Amino acid sequence: MAMTAFAPISLEALAEAIPDGALLAVPPDYGGVAMAATVALLRRGTGGLRLYCLPYSTLQADLLIGTGAVAEVEAAAITLGEQGLAPRFSAAVEGGRLTMRDSTCPALHAALQAAEKGVPFMPLRGLLGSDILANRPDWKVIDNPFEAGDPIVLLPAVVPDVALFHAPRADAEGNVWIGRRRELATLAHAAKRTLVTVEEVVEGSFFESEGSAANALPALYVEAVAVAPRGAWPCACPGLYDADPAAIGDYAKAARDEAGFRDYLKRLLDGRIAPCVLEVEPA
Amino acid sequence: MAMTAFAPISLEALAEAIPDGALLAVPPDYGGVAMAATVALLRRGTGGLRLYCLPYSTLQADLLIGTGAVAEVEAAAITLGEQGLAPRFSAAVEGGRLTMRDSTCPALHAALQAAEKGVPFMPLRGLLGSDILANRPDWKVIDNPFEAGDPIVLLPAVVPDVALFHAPRADAEGNVWIGRRRELATLAHAAKRTLVTVEEVVEGSFFESEGSAANALPALYVEAVAVAPRGAWPCACPGLYDADPAAIGDYAKAARDEAGFRDYLKRLLDGRIAPCVLEVEPA
Amino acid sequence: MTDWRPEELLICRLADALAGDRHVAVGAASPIPGAAALLAQEEAPRRMHVTVLHSRRYNHFTDGGRELFDCAGQGRIDTFFLGGVQIDGQANINLVGTGDYPTLTKRFPGSFGSAFMYFAVPKVILFREEHSPRTLVEKVDFVSAPGCSPEGTWRRGGPTLLVTSLAVFAFDGARRRFALESLHPGVTAETVAERTGFAFDRPAEVPTTAAPEPARLERLRRTIAPKVAEFYPVFAERVFGVTEPAA
Amino acid sequence: MTDWRPEELLICRLADALAGDRHVAVGAASPIPGAAALLAQEEAPRRMHVTVLHSRRYNHFTDGGRELFDCAGQGRIDTFFLGGVQIDGQANINLVGTGDYPTLTKRFPGSFGSAFMYFAVPKVILFREEHSPRTLVEKVDFVSAPGCSPEGTWRRGGPTLLVTSLAVFAFDGARRRFALESLHPGVTAETVAERTGFAFDRPAEVPTTAAPEPARLERLRRTIAPKVAEFYPVFAERVFGVTEPAA
């Protein structure tokens, strides 16, 4: 019998598959953040992570940074968006406890596209004269070989150890529905290993019709899938549910100081903060 | 009233919009070849075209080359596939009447991706030691700036004057359904102007659901759309109809020599060779 | 007493700056620029594309998060909006934080796409409601994106206007300097001078920013506000009292 | 008299070469390699991905025509098949034509993706049914893709085997030379020597290519042939007598 079958693994097994110190690539809040898997990772205990945000992160990064699990972040921004600054991120940077590799959105995309194409670098316009470039010794400025006197930045390819994201569904063959969130395809193409959580696993194959095929990331790029209903909460799951601003606001409030963050974290890991059993502390 | 309306134009007007001498980018046989528009272009009379094939072409290129309308081709191949060699292409090259810029598939993709990203070049692995590279003075080999002693090819960005292809449908806003034929998106992103023929224009918007949105090329990139039912025939229209090997075989047979080609061309321009009124000459 | 809100004045002024554009893109957390783009689209004599990144309805990108930047790189975005924790007199913007980099005194989110968009988009409108010596500074603490570039640097455009809650400045790229273009109704040039941390040109007579015409206000409130309610419901309710997004 | 067709021998031999692969990709116009890949998948002890470009069912790419090459660039394709109008003794392949470039004497379609895939894929199997001095030459007229590269050239792999209608050759990259590995049943080493335009190593005793086992033939005909009928109906009917593709 042909071995084309696919079986989802548990959320705990998925969290186990992310080694300490990994270069972990994650999508932005609109792209399907694997929040349930992030909680599983924190329950397991992790450290030394290097986060690569495509191109920015919200709650996920702030939470991981707050626990001290993150050594380094490369991103265009860490923010809670309309819920304000990312408090643990700001505190960690200001306290000198986090190496922040400031970048800009298209650079974060392009460095993964270099890995996607198997080339060692990608050129990018702009950046010249910015303090972003001035603080990135790993980037190079060359003279455009096709036109003298035209300086241009080259970005080295970035190959994440693990890409982690949440998607609406997988099919029975392990193909993952990413819709028009094409950055997830680039993420999976670029990374050595891709771990995905989904709302559900459905029958059949997305490739049965061209209309659904266009929404699919082929199983070929996916190492493992775990089922996690509401697994992006309180971030959005594109096409299924929006972000939960109240829940993110609760975090923003709690995480203003270290003690509040610790308390929030404890409740989160105890399962007292979850999509269906959201505890709101009295103000 | 907001000017967001969109109105299809005629096939003739679409053909008029392709100037002589244009750098004309076209997809491969599986990607939606605008054959009806090509016939309209031949009826109008055209010349000096420079074809950029992403990454190869079949009947479309051979037909255009046979009429003498093409000055130059850049492609990874020109072929009639299972129907054999592309006879007018081979004859034109062997007769020294066509400049063939031999390339390789990923180079044709990458040069358009450079234009898509607004960068002047893209690196590409491989190619070193090939006679393709030896015959492309417009490509450069540099030493990888991130690792000494690692030569790598740089390809200059290619910005086609016009991209021309056929797709299953457009919606009422002018968005075009390309499905998983993502090379059509890159083609449209890279080209200065994009002209599309479709089987039909449908009501509503593909953006009404995420599942159909993932199949769409936004109207933003499309200058004009013309309706041409069976407009890819005898090539395939992805997701709707397959190629017509018998019709391509008829061409292959007719085009073996110049006289046969001229006769075929006359019948084609007279409307005697068409999807619904296919004339087959007695053998 | 005026019959319009300050946000409506800003929306109308920004919409004026978009006349003739074929494609305007608006980044996240920008309700006023978003509304201005949709108003300009409504008033355009020819087809105008508007991309509001934060919206599902007015965002037709299908190539992932990179498409905004690729689209700008292709030259297909005529105008984009940028802000800044700090903006200085040479139009440099800082979205990273204040104090000495990298630890900084106060860390802000980060530069997002500014370091690219400022170069790639022909017209960049700087928009920051807060007009104070804290936001409009002589020199930014960190250059997320420079307002000017030396000869030979690839750059399609750059800053054209700076619009705040008090005034409008035009930027002269050759002279690397802002000039006060208009004062919003009721604002004096002295107030602007006091609250601006950088030096700028100031004509003898500074015009007043044109108040929105009644027909335009009507259009904004009736047609545009319900559209804005789709992607910025809180803003739409507060400013326009609209609670139902457009069907 | 054998109870198998020559195509079936080739399919089984090619399938053997794919053992242990995680992902095999097959280009256009390759029914025999396509069938071999599906047979190897059927027999694999763990999950094996097969991409047949010409198929709709066995092609799960969703990133357009570039995905095959990107996927190879990422190192996710273990084996690919290439052919050639000419193949020479250093495993250089020519898909462009014969005679002097650029006008040539006989122009063929072109190099397709070979100039990249030959470098990016660890194992490339050269497959050309026609075994003649016209196809297997001392030196190709045009190098679409070189079989060997100097030190310091990025190259993940290259040619491993050359399989024809007569024999199997193994390629030794260090020595830049083919060695005769096996002769198909009924073929003599003398015939191969006569019909090969390049010099090659020839052991004293050349084994015979193993004939397909009955159970495997059964598997090929029952399970694989209907799959092949989806993307190469003419081939499937001619070789296997199968007219209905797998459901």
From TrEMBL, chains A, B:
Gene3D superfamilies registered for this protein in UniProt: 3.30.30.40, Glutaconate Coenzyme A-transferase
Annotated protein name in UniProt: Glutaconate CoA-transferase subunit A
Organism taxonomic ancestry: Bacteria, Pseudomonadati, Pseudomonadota, Alphaproteobacteria, Rhodospirillales
Entry coiled-coil feature ranges: none
Molecular function, one GO term: CoA-transferase activity
Taxonomic source organism: Tistlia consotensis USBA 355
Superkingdom classification of source: Bacteria
Keywords for the protein's UniProt record, in alphabetical order: Transferase
Keyword Transferase: yes
UniProt keyword Transferase, yes or no: yes
SMART domains in UniProt: CoA_trans
TrEMBL record, chains C, D:
Protein keywords: Transferase
Entry keyword annotation includes Transferase: yes
Pfam families referenced in this protein's UniProt entry, alphabetically: CoA_trans
GO molecular function: CoA-transferase activity
Domain of life of the organism encoding this protein: Bacteria
Keyword Nucleotidyltransferase in record: no
Alphabetical list of SUPFAM superfamilies matching this protein: NagB/RpiA/CoA transferase-like
Record protein name field: Glutaconate CoA-transferase subunit B
Originating organism: Tistlia consotensis USBA 355
